[in-house]
Automatic annotation (TrEMBL):
InterPro entries: FUR, Fur_C, WH-like_DNA-bd_sf, WH_DNA-bd_sf. Gene3D superfamilies: 3.30.1490.190, Winged helix-like DNA-binding domain superfamily/Winged helix DNA-binding domain. Binds 1 Mn(2+) or Fe(2+) ion per subunit. Its cofactor is Mn(2+); Fe(2+); Zn(2+). This is Fe2+/Zn2+ uptake regulation protein. GO terms for molecular function: DNA-binding transcription factor activity; transcription cis-regulatory region binding; zinc ion binding. One of its GO terms (biological process) is negative regulation of DNA-templated transcription.
Length: 156
């Protein structure tokens, strides 16, 4: 898990000042469980800091992105969403129903090597994302369309 202090440290090491705006954005990003759009982050941040504009949030997200501190998601032409992520190379499983994201570190690197051999490309990066329905949402699907009677005891 990424905590805000390690993000602050990475920012400082890269020469960025820890302004209030940046701090507030980092805190919002680290607190979010599921990926959110920059606008959604701005909405959260402006609850405590109404003076921080959406452009500032965009800029800070941009810095975090460049430093490799964010995971990016874009499913089916939806707006780009972000979440704090580990610096280590990893991939995602994304639930189409609730937006839950699971990180996994296993990576089909042999395919990269094979592709390089076959095509002559020197591959420098790749993205791999699986979309589907998480276990919790599958359970809901089995209950049929929104049963109002059987919803007690559901954690959530
Ligand atoms: Zn991730
Ligand atoms: Zn789900
Ligand atoms: Zn990979």
């Amino acid at each position: 898990m990424t905590n805000e202090h390690s993000v602050f440290q990475t920012l400082k090491a890269a020469g960025y000042k820890l302004t209030l705006q940046r701090r507030a954005t980092v805190e919002a990003v680290c607190a979010a469980e599921n990926p959110m759009t920059p606008q959604a982050f701005h909405a959260v941040i402006s609850q405590n800091h109404p003076e921080i504009g959406v452009v500032t949030v965009y800029r800070t997200l941009d810095i975090l992105k460049r430093l490799g501190l964010l995971c990016q998601f874009q499913l089916d032409g939806t707006a780009q969403r972000f979440k704090a992520g580990s610096l280590e190379h990893h991939h995602h499983l994304v639930c189409r129903c609730c937006g839950e994201v699971v990180d996994f570190g296993r990576c089909p690197l042999e395919l990269e090597t094979t592709l390089e051999k076959e095509t002559g490309f020197r591959i420098t990066d790749h993205r791999l994302e699986f979309a589907g329905v998480c276990r919790a949402c599958q359970g809901k699907e089995n209950q049929g369309p929104q049963s109002f009677s059987g919803n007690t005891g559901e954690p959530e």
